[in-house]
């Protein structure tokens, strides 16, 4: 029996805590074979991003075609896409190959605060990728930026922003509450017909580099394995919470350290 295959389309993180590297670690930890299409090279570490070099859109398209032309891809995760032409190339690739599951993580700002998505690409992201997604996974600042409004601070506002994001054409939105306050980190899985409140105890740590990438790729891994959307989201949140809790055992970097993707194997 072969492993299910998932494809990540995202940027590379030279310190390996986020982006393509985090996605591939997550896929491996969850029993999924990971393939990749790299949209950008970044020079970054746990303290910040110092340089970004975008891949040509034609190369991004060629990577997507190479993977789908040979591998039986069950799910796609899309992360950092910083330019409109790259977004359009990805959308065209999705239309060519028609994967069953697409998870879009609208990476706009790194944990360090560095902006990763150009302003003119935001509209393209909403127009081209949201309608092709199975689920979109913004955090609280990203949800607010996508809607051009203030960051939600109470649960009713978070749910309302999730519902507004559905209007861009995606059938499900997971608004991640990691940037919120309180003893619990509360996410909201919003669809046209339901709202699921997903809570976990907040972990007191600065090691949060790559948490968004890890969560979205964990959702994609679950979908690739045949889990329902709700099951994939619940399992992904449990995995990420445990990875954050175990992050102190890594001792990597001097800023926002990475989560421990392989905590289950110690």
Textual characterization of the structure:
The strands form two sheets. Strands 3-2-1-4-5-6 form a six-stranded mixed beta sheet. A three-stranded antiparallel beta sheet has the order 7-8-9. Helix content is 37%, strand content 23%. The chain has a single domain (5-137, 210-265), classed as Ribokinase (UDP-N-acetylmuramoyl-L-alanine:D-glutamate ligase, 3-Layer(aba) Sandwich). The relative contact order is 0.16. With 266 residues, the chain is an alpha/beta fold. The protein is built from eight helices and nine strands. Helix 1 (19-29) crosses helix 7 (211-224).
CATH superfamily, by name, is Ribokinase
Number of domains: 1
For the largest beta sheet, what order do the strands appear in spatially? 3-2-1-4-5-6
Beta-sheet strand percentage? 15-25%
Structural class: alpha/beta
What is the name of the CATH topology?
UDP-N-acetylmuramoyl-L-alanine:D-glutamate ligase
Global shape = globular
Question: Which descriptors apply to this entry?
Answer:
single chain, 266 residues, UDP-N-acetylmuramoyl-L-alanine:D-glutamate ligase, 6-stranded mixed beta sheet, 8 helices, 9 strands, 37% helix
Fold topology:
Elements lengths: L4 E9 L5 H11 L3 E13 L2 E7 L2 H12 L4 E6 L5 H14 L3 E4 L14 H11 L5 E2 L3 H8 L7 H12 L5 E4 L8 E8 L3 E7 L9 H14 L4 H17 L21
Parallel strand pairs: 1-2, 1-4, 4-5, 5-6
Antiparallel strand pairs: 2-3, 7-8, 8-9
Structure, briefly:
This protein is 37% helix and 23% strand. With 266 residues, the chain is an alpha/beta fold.
